[in-house]
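User: Okay, second chain of the day. Same drill as before: sequence in, structure tokens out.
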Amino acid sequence: MANGYVAITNGVKMIKYRYLSSNSEVDRVGWTILHHIIEKTIDAYVDDSKDNYRCPYTKLERISTFCEYGYLYDKKTGILKIYRRGEFIYNVDATIEEREKYLFFFKNQKKITDAYTYHWEKLSFDRNKLTRNVVEALNLADMKELVNKYDKYKDDMFILDVNDIEIWNLVNDIKTWTFSNAPRKTQYINYRWTLYMSKYSVVFYVFQNIENDLWDIMIELPYDRAMIASGCKCVSMAADKIREIVHENPKQLMMMAKIMKILETHYNKREYHELESLIVSLPDLWEIEPWYTACDQFTIDNIKDFYSRQM
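Assistant: Same drill. Structure tokens below.
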């Protein structure tokens, strides 16, 4: 957990400080410190310095290098300056409006930043938009609107992320190939993409076809990997194809992930009675909310056939 400190200064001179041994992130202790400044109880908060002995330094210059987060409150100007790993990140002016804005931001930082940076087309967050200037440019009304947007659409904010890269090394297999069908390369790359959807996830594999060097896409099922697209000229085109599939089938993919998770949970726990009951109910579930069948490879018949052989 991140450590930090809060110091009260009078211009450049430090009056007193409090060492924060953990939980010193802005969305935790930052909100608390600013709240005490607004309520004019910051002195009493800083006086509770029972953990100061954990910090080996007493000079502000040395304390700041020891701690991840630093909060400097200047009693002369009323300004709160915040640092992270020595880098200046926030400046909270002494006006009521500015303090109330930052208080709301610290309380709802994740919601605001997620809603502000989420890219609906790319299914990812553009963290390059997160700068100090962003917070300075937003007013309280803007932030409240972003929080409402997050609360309304958070379950639809799917994240597509590359989790792992595998390299298929064919060097040891070259001797088994004839001259005519030997691969032009000795290494092929396999990308593992995960689509995060609220409590569920689906895994895609983007891999280079040995025969033509084009990129194909598979989706991971409980019992196999199913081919759902092929012939992409590069990895970025394959990624765009996955995004296209997601945008065209958001509810179906969510339902598919939900069913796969329940199936795997019952199977791994050997809850065969519950598993059988779920399989029996699949036609009714399909009528209510159809799922993504991965080019007819995750149909009711496929599921029944696989699990009937496992029980």
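The chain has a mean pLDDT of 87.

User: Thanks, on to the next one.
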